[in-house]
Amino acid sequence: xxxxxxxxYSTTAASxxxxxxxNIDENCPAANxxxxxxxxxxxxxxxxAGTTALSSVNITGGSIAGITDLAVAxxxxxxxxxxxxxxxxxxxxxxxxxSNSVTITGGSVSGITDLAIVxxxxxxxxxxxxxxxxxxxxISTQASTNVDIDGGSIDGTxxxxxxxxxxxxxxxxxxxxxxxxxxxxxxxxxxxxxxxxGSDGDIWYTY
Length: 207
Prior knowledge:
The protein is mainly alpha-helical and 207 residues long. The chain folds into four domains: 6-49, no CATH class; 66-106, no CATH class; 108-142, no CATH class; 177-207, no CATH class. Helix content is 16%, strand content 6%. The protein has helices at 30-49, 82-88, 127-133; strands at residues 18-19, 22-23, 188-191, 203-206. The strands form two sheets. Strands 1-2 form a two-stranded antiparallel ribbon. The protein has a two-stranded parallel ribbon with strand order 3-4. The longest helix has 20 residues, at 30-49.
């Protein structure tokens, strides 16, 4: 096959017996050498000018400059600056952040190990386990307008102080009624009528 460009040359010297069909084999005419040299210079110029693309180039050092941006499909970025390169490669703004200082301002994070409490998480993948890990009791899920307390004690607070209302109790046990200046042992009245009169410390039961 005629060696019409650098791509046709053989790495075995003895196999290179022509240059574009000009015979340079043993005992070739002397005039062929002149023509062969001219043809080789032409083929070299084609490579330099980019007319002939080399099929296999191995660069192990130095630098490449002044070329068209290498396309992503050819292993490049298709860009001459970092910002455009990131865009062409489909990278977002988080790609420029350091791993020890990441800021996420939108979207979602999924498929990760449960974030530990010491790292600002709950250490759980469901609400029930999260409440347990955070030391919350059953009352934590109740609405403030409908609280059901069926055990324990309430100490150090006044019931109805902010918004007094009627209450229903099964058993009421008290050691003191009123303040020290009030009648701690006032009269007890059981009646179907609304309370009237009385003094501090009196108790009026209606039914």
